[in-house]
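sanity check both lines:
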Amino acid sequence: MKTGLIISNTYQNHDTGPGHPEQIARVSVIIENFKKYNNKNIFWKKPSIISDDIIKDTHEASYVDLVKNSFPTKGFSSLDGDTIISPGSKKATFDAAGSIIAAIDGVQNKEFANAFCGVRPPGHHCNQNKAAGFCILNNVAIGAKYLLKKYKYNKIAIIDFDVHHGNGTQDIFYDNKHVLFISTHQYPYYPGTGSEKEKGKFNNIYNIPLPAGTNSEEYLNAFEFALKRLKEFRPEFVLISAGFDGHAADPLAQFKLSTDDYYEITKRILETSKEFSNGKVISILEGGYDLQALKDSAKRHVDALLEFN
């Protein structure tokens, strides 16, 4: 079986302005690297056209309407202090969400065993009704709701290894017993949420806050607790919010992870979940702001997906 790589060229039109860390080159370097890589087991696929109904299973209808009407016809606008949008951002935003739908359908239809969605804008800081932290729609949450509704899964796990807490995803699933949300993140740090006390209505939120300066050994030791919780929950499908900004080279945080750690993290998720998810794992790009570290770490992440499909 192959690994799906879900890519759309519309990310190039999401212009966030000069100097913004969530820049067009973040996805360009990943795509160009995979083209050079030229692995025959990568299945390239475009995003699906996503319906409003699917998005509104996750986001409030009034928020979706607000977003659709907020994109400027020229220049720049903003949805919050960090989340800059331009005319081309609209298609990129809906293609990012459509990517996880294409990935899920591809796994379900056995086009490929697992998948990575190389998209922007990211999603995990956006909740039901508010953009935040470069995020406009919550791509991974849309995917989880789609799995529950369309394919009638009963247990979905979302693992978020971005260095920033996925507060939007946590908000969306705080009262949902069908979704386990696990997050490792620098704490205290942006967005300020993600303490161990935030557990969800059904004990379905599991935060592992770690201090600035956390190194590879410390992180991987802590990640064993995430894997233990994953085993207890026994999800039928695993979604990953794959942020690579825990890398030591990243300018926006202070973890000290290495490129190869992302292979190891991914491998451990796949090994742990294979028994109950049958290898059904899809990841989607969140953060990562040093271009070299992002390019190399995303490749190691996909190396693990290819190896274990």
About this structure: The chain has one domain: 3-307. Residues 164 and 181 are 14 Å apart (CA to CA). The longest strand covers residues 179-186.
